Amino acid sequence: MDTRLTAEQDGIRRTLRELLHKRCGSPELRTAVDNPAGYDPQLWSALADQLGLPGLALPERYGGVGCSVTELALACEETGRALAPSPLLATSVLAAPLVLALGTRAQCAELLPRLAAGGLTAALAVAGPALAGALALTGGNERYAAGGGRAGGVQARRAADGWLLYGQADQVLDGHSAGLLLVAAHTGGFARSRTRLFLVPAQASGLLCVRQTALDPTRSQARIQLRNVRAELLGEEEADERAVLAALAALGDGVATVLACEAVGAAGRVLERTVEYVGQREQFGRPVGSFQAVKHRLADVYVALQAARSAAYYAAWATAHGEHVGGLALAQALEALRTAAAEGIQLHGGIGFTWEHDAHLYFKRAAGDELLFGPPHRLRDRAAETSGLFAHGEVAV
Questions:
Q1: What is the pLDDT of residue 320?
Q2: Where in the numbering of this chain does the Acyl-CoA dehydrogenase/oxidase N-terminal domain appear (predicted)?
């Protein structure tokens, strides 16, 4: 493994950091969060037009840049530093790869260029608080059923000219602002129960998307309600019934890798701000950062951050080479972010506990991601299970 960044990777990171520094400071971040869409559409357009960020990991034949998940993960490290609210995770990390993996040639040709250009955003809707389970991050998804959850999840039935969807999905990332929904629905009844993905445009009749109040305000979530909504099946009718679950499981490692790099970026920024603050704040006539206890606490955060960064970078490299260690990297990165954010709040003193300071936003990002994609101990448990570390309750030798 070569840990050095290529000139292209370094250029992507540097350009993105400069853009976000100008366009996504604290005032801009708070304004974007209060926007009905949950993000700044002008910043999203800049990310798409100037950097091609939505299509970074999509093939060139579909209008993408042709890079791998590695470059997308490194780019998300920068968006994590700024906590930049955008539909990047929902569109480019969750939805677009599924269209590419499962869609027909016609569906890919119609949708992927629009997703790559940023003109169309998308969201993945799974029933109940089951995103981590559907992506096989915290356990195998062999038994995942889109028909579970509140109100029976989402059910699909054949109509005269297509499919009709009925049900509800909660905690859909950027679902209220997406132009296209990928909805996981239960088909086949009891006799041949299976999960399939369906394409639902935002303007579909009978579809209601409501933004929910989320713990992390920089990561918008929505409740999706479908009342006999016409939908298009993603992929071929005769596709293998296990294809969707296999695609979701394969997607999970890439999602975990991207989230790990994003969390590392956020943790690094918290540490930078905390170090800067304790160097300026004085107590007993000297900077707080000069006290040995404070130095030790910050040193512990630094060690945790560097370990998480190494794991995230390795996962980004490994994903592009067919290895799957994203879950472990995400577990370590989430713990590093939570530790860095908690220490940042405490070492900022009284101001760190106020709504006006950004420290709480980083802590909420860590806690919110643990609820959606973790927690870390379950991510590690899944990694141990898939690697065969424990066999019949004993450590495998």
A1: 81
A2: 6-118
